[in-house]
Every structure is written in C-alpha cells, then in structure tokens.
Recover the amino acids of this structure.
C-alpha cells in the first residue's frame, strides 16, 4: 500500500524519440511540476548533449534530476539482439539495467519498440506465470477508453497467452484507468461461438472458466472489430499480429483524414472562411482520438515497470508517460498480477484436461 | 474478348439489405439507366412485395427486368448451413442456383455475408486451384484506392492461400480498378524479413518466387498497418481474421468520428455557425473514405461472379455493385484466374521442396 511519504525513481531513456533529446528534456521539465519532492528522475543519455539542454530548460539545478551518461545511441532500424550486444552503453539498455539492479522503479523510453520489447524481456525478465510480454495501447471509444492488448510484442499469441493478456490488461485497466470491474472482450471475426478458429475457441473456453473463478473482471465474450470504437469493453484482448496491424492502420487513417480535411480546407475558398472555426474542432477531435494524457504504453508481463512512449511523442505525451509510470509505481500491480496469473494458469490447465 | 453486342444477365437478391427491398428496387432503377438494351436483371425475391415496388419506381414495364419468385427470407442471424437447408427458396439461394445453372452471369446480394460465403462456395463451387474463397474490400488511400483481400471469408488463411489471394486480388485490381501493374503488399507487423511468424515468412518466399515468374504484378514485400492508408500498394493481402477485424474497426472509427464531430458541432454554439460550411466538407471526406461507387465486394475464387453489396448500402451503393458485376462479366477474369492460379500452385510446390 502506498503511504504519503512514498517516493519513486524513474529512469528516462532520453535519446530514443523522433523529436530528439531536447523534447524529452522538455517533457521532464513538465513532469517535474507534478512529481513529489522526494521523487527522482534519472535522465539517461549522452551527458554532453543533456547538460546544455537541462540548463536551457532551466531545470539543471533541480535536485530530483540526475544525469546518467550513456554514450551509445540505438537507431530505429537496429535489430534487438544486435543492439543489445553492440550498444550496451546506450540510453535504453542502461535504463533497463538500472531497473534490473533496483536503482530505478520504472523505465520510460521513446525508443525503438522492438529493441525495447527484446531487451526489456531479457534484462528485466518475465514475471512468473507469463510466457511472453504484451504491449498495450489505449484507444478512445464512444464512451471512455479501452485498452487493447497486445499491440505488437508477441505476434504469435497462443490461446493461453491470450488469457495472460486478459489478466494483465484487466489489472492495468483497474490500476491506471480506475475501472471498477473491467469488461473484457476477445477480439475475433464473429460473436457467435465457433467463429475465428481453434485458437479463439480455446481462449474463449479458458476465459469463461476463469471468469467463474474471478469476479473482479467481466468476460464479455467474443467481440468484433466494430466494437473497438463502438462497443463497451474496457479491455480488448488480441494477438500481437492483429493488434499491431490494427493500431497502425488506425494511425494511418487518422493521418489521412487530417491531411484530407486540411487539403480540402486549403483548396476550396468556402472552407477557408470556416477554417479558423474548424481548427479548434479538429484539435478537439484529435485530442480525443489520440489522447496525449495516455502517452505511455506499458510493456505488460515483466518483473518491472517499462513504459513505451510513442516514438513521435511531443513533450506532453512523454511527460504523460513519465507520470503514468510514477502512478503505476504506487499501485504495485506486479505482485498482484503474479498471484492472479498463477490462478489463471491453474484454470487453463483444468480446462485443457477437459478438452 | 468482349464484342459490342455482348449482353449479360445479373441475378439481384432483393430481400437481403438492411434498408429492405424498396431500396434495392430503387438501385435497380438507377442501374437500368447505365445498362445496355439487351442486358437482363433478374429480381429475386417475394413477388407480392416486389411487383408493387417496381410499379411505384416506374420500371414495372422495363423489358430488361424479370421477377423470380423466392418466398423464403434469410435473416441476419441465420447460420449458413441452417439457411441453406431450411431456406432453399430464399432470394439468395435462388439467385445462386440461377448462376450455377447458367441462367445468370453474376449474382449481386446485400444479404448475410456468412451465408453468402457458405452458400456461394457450395453452390457455385471454387475455381480450380483455389482452396477457399476470399472477400475483397476497397479502401481509399492517400493516392487512389487499394484492394484488401481477404476481409473475412477465410479466417484461418494459410501461406498458400495468401498466394491465391494475391493472384485473385491483383487480377481484380487490373480488371476492375484498371491498375496497369498492381503493386501487392503482404500485411504483417514489420517490414524486415523474419517478422510476423512462419506463415508470413513462407508466404513471402512464395510471393518472391512467383513474382520472378509473373511480371504482370509487382510484389512490394511485407507492408505494415500504416501502409493500408498511407502506402502505395494497390493490393493488400492478408488473412480473413486480420482483414475482417481491420475492416470493421475502421468502419467503427469512421462512425465514431462522424458522431464526435456532429456532437461537438451541436454542443458548441461557435460550431453551429460553421455547421453549414462544415457539412459539405464532411460529406466530401465521407465520400472519399467510403466510396459508394465501389459498392460491391466480390467473393473471389468462385466459378462464377458473386458480389456482396454492403448490408447497409443505400440505392447508390447497390446500383454501383450491379454495374460492377456487369463490368466484371465483360472482363471474364475467371478463366484467366484459373490459368494463373495453376502457375502459382506450381511455384508454391517448387518453393516448398526447397524448404
């Protein structure tokens, strides 16, 4: 349980974002306003780059900041194994090592997702009862938000791993979004039983049995693509292949719509008149669709808290990820997750025997 | 080859749409304006329902129309096998029987997709070299349109079936969208080789080998979700599980954005002023995102032409599907497809041996 005096230490990988370390330092400056006196942010990256940025951001003297030098830089096209071997002194690997060594309570990185998933798993290790990590993303829906797990950490998710994703996603929904009793949907191609293949059928059987044991979440059964934005599930469970394609397609569509509207406004004089009025409307819609206040996607299933901030995050998005990590530290969801996963694996084994 | 005098007969399933047979009859009325003198539309459905609708649409006397009585009606929640057994005299089954018997050259249906895929496969049969049918959908992208195959006919698509989807999708892109040399992308979670699992790796190897044999399409390699709307592939090949979830998620998002914008316009007085200006803009965007001129999704891989019009199609959408079917009749893509599939299967077998 959190006490009033509890403080936390977060290692921030400062070199990974598309917008460069300057934007991450700006994010740190924003986050500091919300953090407690005893909290600590380790800024991991090239010291000669970070120090001047801290000075120009006016936070060089803040006692809650400490720079940790990491000379290597991981590039977006680096392969995980290669980066881990040849770039041991990169900001991401150093930050993960700090988490592993207990020097930090959480890591926030805007870096290469694949390297973060690979290195995070190898360095921080999987929590007991989990076979693969899962990346989550928060999607807006008609009323509120839903968490989609997995959006790309594990492309070949088995039925059993879909159950793990359910436990991790539901727990995350409770602790981060404050959902009371999360409603979980299993993403597939038809809501009647028997659709979607053997893998989905098995996962459906496991989840029904698990829901009989656990009453802290509600299994809503199979859901369809339409339900991601139009349904009422708080957690959408899927494999990392489908989830990743979904996330990126939606991202591409949002960009296309933005361009389309912008172009039409530009081309047609009648729209220019409305342009000034349109702008805040579009911004409001965009805020709701890609909410920066949920700037971090936790890598679920690890023995430590690792948050991925979107590579193209601006300072607000990355600041949100830092505060989300701080919030997660105080919830201690990992211990609870291990207990629940053990029960889930028992249920899976029981149902497997009955097949 | 098509001659100037060639005419075609299309069986239209009039009872399946969400908007009822009246909307389908309106669509027929629109389509008749574009059809040739010798073309024929068989309106399949309950005669007592259709005749008054034809009279009120003012097309009862058109010699190109013939009503075929089908008393049974398939409901949206009917299961395929059940519908085929207990509703033999439904408009959909009668239309498919006409295609099978050679009385019609194509079928257009707004009915239950699952029943259409199941009954279409059983009645019309798969073309030689194909193992499963595939549904295609047309997505708008930054420049032009892309065809996504499969969007739900076959949720457990194998590597070999992904190759069949490629041949069918590319051929369809040439014949219907007029693409000269279609660029085909294989949808996955990362563009570097080795990502996405065994099934994708094998399909990638097959497609590379096939592209060496065929120069009428260009294999662009693996593509990501972002490329569906932002890329330049004319054909996006995927399994029916991912494709279906993708299609429905995008549909849900478009509805949500529409509602969101509508709501904001309603709630905030400043937007009401701009509302009249906004409306045509939103309509223009909507037109581009869900183009009714591509109202039909062909069920690829069958021995006959079966087009699925969206269940919620209005008259323009269904009319577009009828004209698309007419256009496809004149292209005779099915014979060409069988030849190409035979070559594709040879290539798959050769590559398989080398694994």
């Amino acid at each position: 349980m959190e006490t009033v005096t509890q403080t936390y230490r977060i290692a921030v990988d400062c070199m990974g974002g598309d917008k460069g370390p300057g934007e991450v330092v700006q994010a740190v400056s924003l986050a500091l306003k919300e953090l407690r006196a005893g909290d600590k942010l380790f800024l991991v990256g090239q010291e000669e780059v970070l120090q001047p940025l801290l000075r120009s951001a006016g936070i060089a003297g803040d006692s809650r900041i400490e720079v940790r030098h990491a000379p290597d830089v991981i590039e977006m096209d680096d392969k995980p194994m290669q980066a881990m071997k040849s770039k041991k002194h990169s900001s991401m690997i150093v930050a993960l090592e700090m988490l592993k060594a207990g020097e930090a309570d959480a890591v926030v990185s805007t870096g290469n997702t694949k390297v973060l998933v690979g290195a995070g798993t190898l360095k921080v290790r999987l929590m007991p009862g989990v076979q693969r990590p899962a990346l989550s993303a928060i999607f807006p829906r008609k009323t509120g938000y839903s968490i989609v797990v997995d959006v790309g950490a594990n492309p070949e998710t088995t039925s059993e791993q879909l159950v793990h994703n359910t436990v991790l996603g539901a727990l995350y929904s409770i602790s981060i979004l404050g959902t009371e009793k999360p409603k979980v949907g299993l993403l597939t191609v038809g809501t009647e039983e028997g659709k979607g293949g053997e893998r989905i059928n098995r996962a459906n059987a496991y989840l029904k049995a698990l829901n009989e044991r656990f009453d802290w979440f509600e299994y809503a059964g199979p859901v369809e693509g339409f339900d991601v934005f139009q349904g009422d599930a708080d957690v959408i469970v899927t494999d990392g292949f489908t989830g990743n394609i979904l996330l990126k397609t939606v991202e591409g569509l949002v960009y296309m719509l933005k361009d389309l509207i912008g172009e039409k406004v530009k081309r047609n004089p009648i729209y220019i008149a409305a342009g000034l009025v349109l702008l805040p409307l579009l911004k409001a819609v965009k805020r709701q669709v890609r909410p920066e206040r949920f700037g971090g996607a936790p890598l679920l299933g690890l023995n430590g808290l690792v948050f991925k901030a979107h590579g193209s995050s601006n300072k607000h998005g990355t600041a949100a990820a830092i505060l989300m990590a701080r919030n997660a530290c105080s919830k201690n969801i990992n211990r609870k997750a291990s207990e629940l996963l053990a029960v889930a694996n028992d249920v899976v084994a029981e149902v497997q025997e009955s097949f």
About this structure: The first helix of chain A runs from residue 21 to 32. The domain at 133-291 of chain A is CATH 3.40.718.10 (Isopropylmalate Dehydrogenase). The longest strand of chain A covers residues 134-140. Chain A is about 50% helix and 15% strand.
